[in-house]
Write a structure and sequence with these properties.
Blueprint lengths: L3 E2 L1 H5 L8 E4 L7 E2 L23 E4 L1 H8 L3 H12 L6 E4 L7 H10 L3 E3 L4 H15 L3 E11 L2 E6 L6 H10 L3 E13 L2 E6 L6 E4 L3 E4 H5 L7 E3 L2 E7 L14 E5 L2 E10 L5 H16 L4 H26 L1
Parallel strand pairs: 4-5, 5-6, 8-14, 14-16
Antiparallel strand pairs: 1-3, 2-6, 7-8, 7-9, 9-10, 10-13, 11-12, 15-16
EC number: 2.7.11.-, 2.7.4.-
Catalytic activity: [HPr protein]-L-serine + ATP = [HPr protein]-O-phospho-L-serine + ADP + H(+); [HPr protein]-O-phospho-L-serine + phosphate + H(+) = [HPr protein]-L-serine + diphosphate
Pfam families: Hpr_kinase_C, Hpr_kinase_N
Length: 321
């Protein structure tokens, strides 16, 4: 399971968490492995049964007000019990509330980082959850081309020089959209895989003989998009007359990307085949499958029924004779 260090919360620049370290420098090496946030609430009163390890603990107005109702000795005892539980990630006090001395001392004693933010609890929780979801997402990079064809995210794979970029350019000319060429950055989010262009070469494409071209500048903003869910992988292979290729498509193949199985089609390439048209048909066929219509299986079922009925008629004819 992927995890990040607590220190990365302080280093964040994109989610405006506005965190300031108040105590527990030694706790910055601890880790978070869940995007879910916890408010200790009842745990401060001693009920720690549902306290989860490796989660950010948010102390808002309710928690700080509750501590203020307790004598200092009771505050220290409550916090010591809370922080003696399984490894917590860190403590964040929201709304720029005054941090009780007992909380500072308890965090130092437990080796737990204590941070403070001026944000309201609800706003901070939303922002830190977004940060953690992005940071904990499984990611990788692939050599290929990602296109949006009829709303279907199609990843073209194949060895260098097989014609992926040329097919993508043909698809752009037909009104489809380029997401990434050459390097596709993929991330896993909630069981799906999303692809995007590498920031350095985004919207650019290499066409042998022409060099680097900018699809956005040439065809306009409607010809590109920033990211797309990958719903189909098409692997391009050089045509081999000695190899058997799937001619029915009854059995579905899959390719695993960052732990998720994506439907896979292996398409042989040779001169004379209109690859852009084949990719468009693959996109339409994938849309049919998503709607519950599997053309190859339906054809196979009709064929089997016709064969069975023919065999039955022959049997009945023999019995009559």
């Amino acid at each position: 399971m992927k995890s990040i260090r607590i220190s990365q919360l302080l280093e964040d620049q994109g989610h405006d968490l506005r965190l300031t370290l108040m105590a527990g420098t030694q706790g910055l090496a601890r880790t978070v492995d869940s995007s879910r946030i916890q408010k200790p609430g009842l745990a401060l009163a001693g009920f720690t049964e549902h306290l989860h390890p490796h989660r950010v603990q948010v102390f808002g107005n309710t928690e700080i007000s509750y501590l203020a109702t307790l004598p200092e000795d009771a505050q220290r005892a409550s916090l010591a019990k809370l922080f003696s539980e399984e490894d917590l990630a860190c403590v964040v006090v929201t709304k720029a509330l005054d941090v009780p001395r007992a909380l500072v001392d308890a965090c130092e004693a437990a080796g737990l980082s204590l941070m403070k933010t001026p944000l309201l609890s609800s706003e901070f929780i939303q922002r830190v959850q977004n940060f953690l979801e992005d940071a904990l997402t499984e990611s990788s990079s692939l050599h290929g081309v990602l296109m949006d064809v009829f709303g279907v995210g199609i990843l073209l794979l194949g060895k260098s020089g097989i014609g992926k970029s040329e097919i993508a350019l043909d698809l752009v000319m037909r009104g489809h959209r380029l997401v990434a060429d050459d390097i596709v950055d993929v991330t896993r989010r909630k069981g799906a895989v999303y692809g995007a262009g590498n920031p350095v070469i985004k919207h650019h494409m290499e066409i042998r003989g022409l060099g680097i071209i900018n699809i956005k500048d040439l065809f306009g903003v409607s010809a590109v998009r920033e990211q797309k869910k990958i719903e189909l992988v098409i692997e391009l292979q050089e045509w081999d007359p000695h190899q058997e290729y799937d001619r029915l498509g009854v059995e579905d193949k899959h390719l695993q990307i960052v732990g998720v199985d994506i439907p896979l089609s292996v398409v042989p390439v040779r001169p004379g085949r209109n690859m852009a048209t084949i990719v468009e048909v693959a996109a339409r066929n994938q849309l049919l499958k998503l709607q519950g219509h599997h053309s190859a299986r339906e054809f196979a079922e009709r064929l089997n029924r016709a064969i069975a009925q023919g065999a039955m008629r022959r049997t009945l004819g023999e019995e009559v004779e």
